[in-house]
Amino acid sequence: MGKGASRIELITQQNELLKEQNDLLRKQNELMKRSASIPAGGEREVFIENIDRDEIRSGFLVTSNRKKLWNVQINLLKEFDRICKKYNLRWFAAGGTLLGAARHKGFIPWDDDVDVVMLRPEYQKFQEVAQREIRHPYFLDCWFNHRLESEINCSVAPDPTLPLIPSESAKKSPGAPPFFPLIKLKDSRTLYLEFPDRPTVNQAIFIDIFPMDPLPPFYTKQSEINFEIARELLMATAVPGVIVKAMEANRPLLIAYDEMKKLLRLPYKLRALKFEEFASNTFFLSEKLGDLRDTTAIPHRPNAFGSYASKHFEDVTYLQFETIKIPAPKNYDEFLTSYYGDWHKIKIYYGHSLGYSDEISSKEFFAKNRVE
User: Phi and psi dihedrals of 304, rounded to 5?
Assistant: First the structure.
C-alpha cells in the first residue's frame, strides 16, 4: 500500500512538472508570435495600460487594437518631445488631445489621432533639426512633399520622386493633405488608411503638428499687409483657382500680377516653401494666434483650431495623458472653453481613419490589397 501510494505521488509530481513545462512552452510561443508581429526597427515601448484587453471607457468600447494605435502615437509623441527638449522648442497639446488630457487623463475613448501646436518660428526650427534627428522607422511627412497630377506646364519640373496625388483624389478631398499646411511625424512600419485612392502616399500612424500664426486684429499697417500676403501665398499654393479667378476679375492683390503668375507656374512644393519662408520671416506675437489655414478659402471645417489669445502660450503646465505627461497651456480651462464651450460635456464622434494597424506598413497593405 505504501509503495502504491509512493508511485501515485511520483506520477502526480511528474504530471505537475509536465504541466509547468507546457505552460512555459505556451508562454514562449506567445512571446515568439508577439515578437514576430513587431515590425523591423525594434520593439515599441508600452505606454497604455492593459494594452491587450478591450475595456469600456465613458460608455465606449475601446478595443485592444485602438489601444495599440494609441501606443504607437505616444511613442511618436515621445520622439517628438525628445527632439524638442534637445533644441529647447516648446509645444502644446491641442484639439482633442488637450481635451482628452483635461477630461479623461488620456485619449478621448473614440479618438484616433494626436494634435499638437507650435508657434511658427519653433515649428520651422523643428522641421530643420528633424532632418538630422529623425531616423527610421520614424519620418517627417511635410505637407509640401507631394506632387500633383494636375501640375503641367510648370516653369520647373516637379520632383519625380515625390508621392503623386491623382487629380480625382485631389478633387475628392480638397481640404486634406497635401492642401493642409501642417507636418506629420509618422511610424513607417504602420498603417493608418485615410485615402484608398492614394497608393503612392505613405499612410502611416502619425501625430499632427500645427503651426500657430498671428491673426487679426493687428496694431500696425505693415502687420496687416504681411498677413494678407501670407494668405495670398497660401491660397496660391493650396487653392490656386481662387487666385486665378481674382486675377481674371481684376481684383487687387498685394502680390503684383507678374510675380503671382510666376508663382503659379512653380510646382506645388516650391509654392508651399515660399509661403512657409514668408510666414516664418514675418512672424510676430500679436494679440491672437491661430491656424492661418482657417482664414483662407481652403475648403475645410471652419475654425479647426479657432483663434486664441497669445497669453495662452506664455506659460505651460503638464497634464496626465495615459501613463505620460504632456505640456498644455497653463490656463487650459479657459483655452478649451473658448473653443468647445462646456468642454466637460461628452459628445461622441467618429475618427478619421478607415482602418489602422501597428503590424503592417502602408506599402505592404497596398501591395497585398486592391483597394477600390
Answer: -55, -40
CA 265 to chain centre: 30
Amino acid residing at 101: A
* Spatial CA neighbour of 64 closest among 348, 320, 351, 358: 358
- CA dist 48 to 62, 109, 236, 296, 353, Å? 12, 13, 43, 38, 20
pLDDT at 36: 36
- Higher per-residue pLDDT: 352 or 16: 352
pLDDT of residue 15: 57
Question: What's the CA gap between 361 and 339, in Å, rounded?
Answer: 35
Does the residue 278 lie in any domain?
no
pLDDT score, position 38: 42
The string over 186-199, giving b where at least 16 C-beta atoms fall within 10 Å of a residue's C-beta and e elsewhere, is: bbbbbbbbbbbebb
117 is written with which cell numbers? 501646436
The whole-number pLDDT of residue 58 equals: 93
Buried b (16+ CB within 10 A) or exposed e, 316-325: eeebebbeee
Task: Over range 303-322, report the average pLDDT.
Answer: 85
d(CA 2, CA 176): 81
Range of the domain at 90: 55-213+304-368
Determine the Cα–Cα distance for residues 224 and 215; give it in Å rounded to an integer.
Answer: 9
pLDDT of residue 31: 43
Give yes or no for a contact between 74 and 48, defined as CB atoms under 8 angstroms apart.
yes
CA-CA distance, 247 to 45, in Å (whole number)?
A: 54
Cα 97 from Cα 332, distance rounded (Å): 12
Does 330 fall in a domain?
A: yes
- On whether residue 126 sits in a domain, the answer given is yes
pLDDT in tens, 257-308: 999 999 999 999 999 999 999 999 999 989 999 988 877 765 444 444 568 8
The helix or strand, by DSSP H or E, that contains position 356, with its residue range, turns out to be: strand 355-357
* Bridge partner list, 211: 118
Which triple of cell numbers denotes residue 261?
503668375
Q: Give the single-character DSSP code of 109.
A: T
Higher pLDDT, 92 or 218: 92
> Who has greater pLDDT, 106 or 35?
106
In-domain check, residue 169 = yes
